[in-house]
Write a structure and sequence with these properties.
The strands form 2 sheets. This protein has a 4-stranded mixed beta sheet with strand order 5-1-4-6. It has a 3-stranded antiparallel beta sheet with strand order 2-3-7, with no helix packed on it. Among the domains are: 120 residues, Up-down Bundle (Methane Monooxygenase Hydroxylase, Chain G, domain 1), CATH 1.20.58; 47 residues, Ribosomal Protein L9, domain 1, CATH 3.40.5.50. The protein starts with a helix and ends with a strand. By secondary structure, the protein is an alpha+beta fold. It contains 6 helices and 7 strands, in the order H-H-H-H-H-E-E-E-E-H-E-E-E. Helix 1 runs parallel beside helix 3, helix 2 runs antiparallel to helix 3 and helix 3 runs parallel beside helix 4.
């Protein structure tokens, strides 16, 4: 990658159309910026024309990359806002998003729906009893090779199955440290958990949920924590792949 490639991407992003960019664009940009910094560090005379040229290129690259990022994020948020008022997908642009951008799109869409439920719900649908479920933000594990979030493996999903692995200490630790058992106190709309999975639960269900989601529901009096050993045979799983 070089400054010209970054400039070309920036030029294409100047209009409101969402463009497809290489999946490794930011990873390659990082390598390019680090190489520039190494070259600048090798020059003994920071006032030399070569040093000035490299510093100017470094500053321009950082500025252009930030502009590209902000323009794409703006388009992501705009499309999520428009989609929130539509009954079906309205744009194929979503296919052009990078994994992190798609994650942001989903979070914005879920956040808008939660805000609408909490603020407009009592006015427009006073008897619905619907509770706002806010999306949880979590840190994605990065794949060193690509710089993008790793796909969850079967091992990563162990705790989300709602069943403890018999005789497997690591499985038990995952449940204790990252997941908790709760009793649902009211009917809830399907929501996306901190583990990236969708959960459909109803009042009186006893379920295993990511700790972040469970804490949020408990604070809203939508769930009650079940102490270890109390869940009995009623423990169930409501996560959809």
């Amino acid at each position: 990658m070089d400054i010209e490639e970054i400039s070309q991407i920036l030029y294409k992003e100047k209009n409101q159309t969402l463009k497809t960019i290489p999946a490794d664009f930011y990873l390659e940009a990082e390598k390019y910026v680090r190489e520039l910094e190494k070259e600048i560090g090798k020059i003994n005379n920071p006032r030399s024309p070569e040093s000035k040229m490299l510093n100017d290129e470094h500053e321009r690259a950082l500025s252009d990359l930030e502009t590209i990022f902000m323009k794409r994020i703006g388009k992501v948020i705009t499309r999520a806002t428009i989609q929130s008022n539509a009954d079906k997908p309205i744009s194929k642009d979503i296919e052009k998003l990078l994994p992190a951008e798609k994650l942001l799109y989903d979070l914005v869409l879920q956040g808008i729906e939660a805000a609408k439920t909490e603020l407009l719900g009592p006015i427009l649908y006073p008897d619905s009893g619907k509770t706002a479920v806010w999306p949880c933000i979590w840190a994605s594990r990065q794949d060193p090779a690509s710089g993008h979030p790793k796909e969850k493996t079967g091992e990563d999903r162990t705790a989300t199955t709602g069943r403890k692995k018999a005789g497997t200490e690591s499985g038990k630790n995952n449940i204790n440290e990252e997941y908790v058992v709760v009793r649902i106190l009211k009917n809830l709309p399907t929501f996306t958990g901190a583990d990236g999975r969708n959960y459909t639960v109803s009042a009186e269900d006893v379920v295993v949920l990511p700790q972040l989601n469970a804490t949020g529901l408990i604070k809203r009096n939508a769930a009650k924590l079940i102490a270890a050993g109390e869940e009995g045979s009623g423990e169930r799983n409501f996560a959809k792949n």
